[in-house]
DNA sequence: TCCTTAGTTCAAAATATATTGAACTATTGA
DNA sequence: TCAATAGTTCAATATATTTTGAACTAAGGA
C-alpha cells in the first residue's frame, strides 16, 4: 500500500539534476516549496498538465528521491524530501528553489524555452 | 572567430539543470572545478569520451552558459563561468560541484546509472 | 608548401523521454 | 450496492537526445 522511494544513498546527483531540468517538474517543486506544510494531492497541480501527464512527472520526482508520496485513500499526499536532499546534497535544493521562485510564473510554466 | 555564449539573462535554470543532469558533463564540470586556473583544452577531457562526442557535450555546456570557450589557434580554452552562474543562481554551482567531488571517480564516470 | 594536430560538422542510427487517450483500480459517499 | 472521484497503467506516438564515423576546416611547425 505504499509506493517505492529511493533511500538516501540511492539518490543520485545526475538523476536529481536531470529530473529537475524540466519546466513542469520545476514548477511542481516550486509550488511544493511555496506551500510546505500544506498537504498536497496530485489534483493541486492540475494547472501544470493533464492528470495522466502529471502522474508521469510526479512518479519521476518520487523515483529520483525529490518528493515523498504517501497514499491516503484514493489520494496521494506529496511533499518535498527537503531534509533528505539537504543531507545528501547540501545547499542544492535551496539554491534551486530560490532561483525557481525568482522566475516569473509564466517563465516557470513556459515550455518553449 | 569567437563562439556564441548566452549572456546572463539568457541562462535558464531548467536548461542548466538538464545539461548538468548527465554523467559525462558532470564529470567535465567536476574536472574543470578541480583544475580552475589551469587552461583546459578539449583534449584534456579525452578520458570522458571520444573527440566527436566531447565536442557535442562541450557545446551543450557552452550553450547553457555553464562554460566559456575561447578560441586559441586550433585549440579551445574552456573554463567554468563561475561568477556568472553565482550571480544568476547563487549557491547552485557550488553545491553541485561539492556533491560531484564527493562522488568516487567511478561513479562520476559511470554511465549505467 | 605540406603535413600534422585540434577540433567541428554532418547525417544516420540508436536510445531515451514526453504526451496522449482509453481502460483500469481502489476508495468513498449516498 | 452504485456511482463518483482520484489516480494509475498501458500502448502508441511524437519528440528529443546521444552516439558514431567520415569528411571537413583552420592553424602551426618542419
UniProtKB/TrEMBL annotation, chains A, B:
Residues 15-94 form the HTH arsR-type domain. GO terms for molecular function: DNA-binding transcription factor activity. Transmembrane segments: none annotated. InterPro entries: ArsR-like_HTH, HTH_ArsR_DNA-bd_dom, WH-like_DNA-bd_sf, WH_DNA-bd_sf. Gene3D superfamilies: Winged helix-like DNA-binding domain superfamily/Winged helix DNA-binding domain. This is Helix-turn-helix transcriptional regulator. It comes from Aminobacter anthyllidis. The lineage of its organism: Bacteria, Pseudomonadati, Pseudomonadota, Alphaproteobacteria, Hyphomicrobiales.
